[in-house]
Amino acid sequence: MTDHNSAIQVTVWNENRHEKKNPKVAAIYPQGIHGAIAAALSAESGLAVRTATLDEPEHGLTQAVLDGTDVLIWWGHMAHHDVRDEIVERVKKRVHAGMGLIVLHSGHYSKIFKALMGTACSLKWRESTDKERLWVVNPAHPVAAGLPGHFELPFEEMYGEPFAIPAPDELVFISWFTGGEVFRSGAAWQRGCGRVFYFRPGHETYPTYHDANIQRVIANAVRWARPAANLADIHPPRPEACAPLEPLPPDPGAAERPAIGHR
User: Fold this and answer.
1) Helix 212-225 × helix 32-42 angle, to 10°
2) Is the pTM of this model over 0.85?
3) Is residue 125 part of a domain?
């Protein structure tokens, strides 16, 4: 069981490619998108924050890093294909074992999000001058704590329905855009013992992660997604034979049946 008196260990992962290739992105996020998110989270009490990026060895997500991570934040866009499949599987196993995962913006099309959702995770999009209005449709949810009934971003990339995801366990935000589209922009799922939250805003050419409401959502999501338990404490990693709690009557046909075991 997680010690809820200790600091939440947060790893902010970013592919960190746009910042190296696009001067406009570098000007908005001189320390990278991961750096901006990490700086905002570091100002929160009870959080211990580190960063990792795609071009580090093992994408910065070694087994030791993941084992020491309570909540992983994921931002990716132009280099989803460069993320190694064995690292995706490593992250997936940690989510099933209880690690929280927060997927941001274009991370909807990341290998890890698609693997956990089991669907295409496709959507409509438009990079233009849309205003985004986010409506809090579940104000009692912990991720919505401290937020007004709605808030706005003056410019953002539009994402529109249909969004090819499984029905969320909980829906916290719905977005409306100037062009008339709507989108399920804040959605939560349980995967194994891990909690997954997807949050839509965050296109790289807009200063979205400097917005106080966006920072509040991410901090709230970190606290909501922290592990409550470890899967290994509840279930064995492999199927195992189990002795009955009560005596069973004799089985007269047992001698004639071949033994069957789990693979």
Assistant:
1) 80
2) yes
3) no
